[in-house]
Amino acid sequence: MNSKLKDPNIDFLFKAILELKTMDECYDFFEDLCTITELKSISQRIVVAHMLSEKRVYSDIVKETGASTATISRVNRSLNYGNDGYECVFERLKNK
């Protein structure tokens, strides 16, 4: 984990998220926690990451998600040089 990110407040957030058990609980929690814009932005990033991990091209991703090429590039950088968090989640989702 990135030591710059490690923080007691973030730990508390992640522990709270890990307590959620249903999709409805997730919707309720994240609607309380985030603005609609923040949540749409976060969800767009994970969809972009998933599409990139499937080797989709930027033009298709822009067309299907509405994400800017700058956002796609940032997400791609995370996929290539990040902590493999996206891949961990995608692998688990694939196995369900």
List keywords for this structure.
74% helix; mainly alpha
Outline the structure in words.
By secondary structure, the protein is mainly α. The chain contains six helices and no strands. The longest helix has 18 residues, at 36-53. The protein starts with 7 loop residues before the first helix and ends with a helix.
Rg of Cα set = 15 Å
Fraction in helix: over 70%
Pick out the low-confidence regions.
Answer: none
Computed structural class: mainly alpha
Q: What would you call the shape?
A: globular
Query: What is the helix tally?
Result: 6
Largest sheet: none
Distance between the termini: 25 Å
Number-wise, the strands total: 0
Helices and strands, in order, run as: HHHHHH
**What does the average pLDDT come to?**
95
Percent of sequence in beta strands: under 5%
Task: Please give a quick description of this structure.
This protein is mainly alpha-helical and 96 residues long.
Detail the topology: elements first, then pairings.
Layout: H1 8-18, H2 23-33, H3 36-53, H4 58-65, H5 69-81, H6 85-94
